[in-house]
Amino acid sequence: MSQVRLTIWLVLGLMLSEVLVADESEKRRVDISISIFPRIVAVDNHFREKLEVGNKVRLLFVYDEDRSLAESLMARIGKDGKMIGGMKIVTQLASVRAPLPDNEVPVAIFLVERLDDAQLARVITFAEKKHRLLFSPYSGDVERGVMVGISVTNRVKPFFNLQALRRANVEINALLMKMSKRYE
Amino acid sequence: MVIVVLLSMAVIVRHWAFVTAPTLKAAEQTKAELLITPYTQLLESAVDEGDESQLGDILNQLVLLEDVTYNEPIVLSLKISLLDGRVIERHNTIKRNTTPFRAETPIFSPRTMELLGSVKLEYNDAFYNRLIGEVWWEMGASMLMALLLLVAMQYWVRRLLRPLTELSNRLVRVDLDTQPSLPPADPALSTEILQVWQSIEQLFSRLRQRDEALESEHAAAQAALQAKLEAETASREKSQFLANMSHELRTPLNAIIGYSEMLYEEVGESGNAEMAGDLVRIVNSGKHLLSLINDVLDLSKIEAGKMQLYLDDLNLPQLVCEVMDNIEPLIASNNNTVDVLCDEKIGSIHADEAKLKQVLINVLGNAAKFTHNGEVGLTVERLTDDTGEWVLFKVRDTGIGISEEQQKNLFKAFTQADESTTRKYGGTGLGLTISRSMCQLMGGDITVSSHPGEGSIFEIRIPVQVGGGEDDKNLDVLAEGMSESLGEIERQKSEASGLKKLSDNSPLVLIVDGDSSEIDLLQRMLGEEGFRCECSKTGREGLEKAANLIPALIILDITLPDTSGWTVLSQIKKNPLLLHVPVIVHSMIDERATAAALGAAGYLSKPTGRHELMAMVQGQLQTSDSSTVLVIDADVDARRMSRMVFENEGWQVTECGDGEVGMMRVAELMPSAIVVDAGLEKMPVIDFVEALREHELWRSIPVLVLTEETLADEYRAALLTHVDMVVEKGPYSLDTLLRRLRELMGAESSAAMA
User: Fold this and answer.
1) Which 3 state secondary structure label does DSSP give A106?
2) Which of B487, B526, B499 is nearest to B510 (CA)?
3) What's the N-to-C CA distance of chain B in angstroms?
4) pLDDT, tens digit, for every residue of B132-160?
5) Cβ atoms within 10 Å, residue B422
């Protein structure tokens, strides 16, 4: 009996460690992505056309449940008065459970958390409709239709979904595209 | 093995080429990618700030890096391409063709996050190429070495095995039939191979010896088999010769003796003494010649190993009496007295009667012959010693005696004591030889103790239980005969209805013999004694006459022209109507045991004298004539009681326990009367008597029924239709039974004598 119990604990421990490792990995992805995201925003060839009034770069952070994470990411991206292309960054929070802002269209959208299929589809539809760059730090989201993410191998590279970009009518700098990973 | 090695090499090479090398290449590519990554931020800052000095330092630093393992720069070139068209680059020149690993990364402005351009790095492939080259070289060298080793090993193995191969080839070519040994080994061979060669030579030699031994054993076995076959052939031929000679010699002698005796009797009656004297001489000469022939044939038989023993339990006092009856006239003829010492209670001996008698007659005859006015004595006693139980016959005489020198030749064939003895006393010189052989055949011996002028003592020593012969006890051919179906009995019954009833009441004797003169002799001898005779010269005719005439006795020769007498005897004994008829086998062939086994009542050897013939015939007829009572009762004690009472009346008694066996006994014995118990279980008495009365031959047999219970009137009445009397067992039942039996037996005897 004790052997059975030990086995159960071992399995649970392994599952937990996997979860923890997975969580750690995704946390790092998010950390790196928040540094890369502004650069990706800047390589949109029509980036300057999407500025809001006052030449501000509105960046929308969409979350599901973890509002605090969204807020911390927003804080990091706007830290020390960072600018994109010389324009001030304005950050905005939006819950995926609520209607996405239709009137204040951001320049680019950052997915704070992993979303389910329905939620993700809604956000993708929004971004494509608005012709805005949608960025997700989570693995697999580019394959699910998100326009851009990151590819982590021996180097961290931007990862583009070309079809999604075409649907959204978003053009990316060719030089960067050449040095990035692409998903057709 | 070569193929296995080559295949292994191919697998290794393939793995290296398609797995390991690409992995190494990817690893080098990663190294290139990783090398530039930490410098990217510095380069971004330097480019964004326009600090060309810092930029130059960074670039110089990178291109300066050198790998200590192969002493070449790590970075072959570094090139920054900016979006504004500027290009900043650094190079390292090396004197070889290279295929560097390339890594390119974008650079962004840290301030504006805008793409500034890209940085391209060429990473030296020297390490990779060197590693690959070394691995390929080492792998190739190893494989080559392995191949060389393999080839060398194969060469050495072949070379090492060559002597064994040569040895094997030589062994295959060796012809065991023509070559006495292996060809000599090549001295150049290694010591070990030479040892193997020698071992094989030794094995070869041993096999050869064994082969030769087997061949000689086989030859010896073949020779022994051939000798055995020849000996068997010779033995068979000898037996056939003996049989032929026995028949050819005795047949005419039999006629001479028989006719001479008859003539003598006729002449004697007529009073012609002179002729009678001549006839006596003829008879005596014939008997002497017969005796000589018998002796010679006996000796031949002994030497051929054909002398057989026919064993039976013999009452010693009776045997002695019979011998003395035979020999006393001879003893008395020389004015000798006879002294016989044989205890009445000495018991019996299990031996061959004829041979034992022959031995005693021979020895006593010699004693009588060589003693005049003296004494001839016979002592019979039992002796037990370490070797077993014996019967000792001592024959002593007060005759001429035998010297030591003469005793040496006494038991040798064709020698008497000396020639003068032969002239004076006659004889063939075979008697003692044959007697000793017969004694030895029975497991005993004859010894002599004698001195000239003082008489002799011959000791005949025979085991009490002689073994190795054939018992004279009959096989029960009756059961075989009676196991025939009732249909056979019915068939015989219908044939029996055609029985001839001869008016003459004198006993009828059927003679079955292929020899006309023999038939004539027997017919005359029997006729003179008041017997009626019927004769048959063939077995078939004999069987027909026997079935039709139901004679009182059958005299049967074995040598018949159409069939064997044994076949005829068997057929007679299978015939229920003839079962009770005694058959005397009258033959030259001494097959006493076979005759008894097949159911013969007696045996006579040809030629047979009148007295011997009549004694046998009268004895058989007397036996069959004597009143026999068959007692059938399941109770052993009751049967015993009946036996005692009936034997007291002088009747012969046969008993059995059930009706089925009773039927067999009836067929076998034709009893004068049957006494049966009403309480038979296996075959109820009513069934028994009904079956009995179905046979014409048995209807006249009186049946008396003894019963313990009072029978129902109806049942009693049914029984009385088949039986003569029903008696309830009680204090006077046996008396009643006896009276009635006496009446019935008396009536039967009267009817027989009438």
Assistant:
1) coil
2) B526
3) 118
4) 888 888 888 888 888 888 889 888 888 87
5) 14
Tell me the whole-structure pTM to 2 decimals: 0.39
> Do the strands B75-82 and B87-91 form a parallel or antiparallel pair, or are they unpaired?
antiparallel
Contacts of A176 in chain B (CB under 8 A): 106, 115
Please report the pLDDT score of residue B162 as a whole number: 80
Mean pLDDT of B396-410: 89
Complex confidence, ipTM: 0.74
Indicate which of A32, A33, A40, A155 best probes the interface with B, i.e. most B CBs within 10 Å of its own CB: A155
Backbone CA torsion sign across B298, B304, B310, B311: positive
pLDDT, tens digit, 9 for 90 and up, residues B61-73: 888 888 887 778 8
Residues whose CB is less than 8 angstroms from the CB of residue B634 and which lie 6 or more positions away in sequence, other chains included: B657, B658, B677, B679, B680, B681
Smallest Cβ–Cβ distance between A176 and the set B29, B106, B112 belongs to B106
Residue B591: what residue type?
A: E
Distance (Å, whole) CA B503 – CA B498: 15
Which chain B residue has the Cα nearest residue A77? B113
Beta bridge partners, B103, equal B121
Residue carrying the six token digits 């010492």 = B341
Interchain contact, B115 vs A42, CB within 8 Å = yes
Tell me which chain A residue has its CA closest to the CA of residue B114: A42
Looking at the complex, does the CB of residue A103 fall below 8 Å from at least one CB of chain B?
no
Mutate to test the interface with A, among B111, B113, B115 (most CBs of A within 10 A): B113
Reported as type and span, the H/E element at residue B408 is helix B404-408
A82, A86, A176 member nearest B115 (Cβ): A176
Residue with the two structure tokens 């003082």 = B454
Say whether A42 and B34 touch across the interface (CB within 8 A): no
A155 in contact with B, Cβ within 8 Å: yes
User: How far is residue B351's CA from residue B447's CA, in Å, rounded to a whole number?
Assistant: 19
Token pair, residue B600, equals: 């013969």
Q: What is the largest CA-CA distance in chain A?
A: 70
Distance from CA of A7 to the nearest CA of B (A): 37
> Among A176, A181, A179, A178, which residue's Cα sits nearest to residue A40?
A176
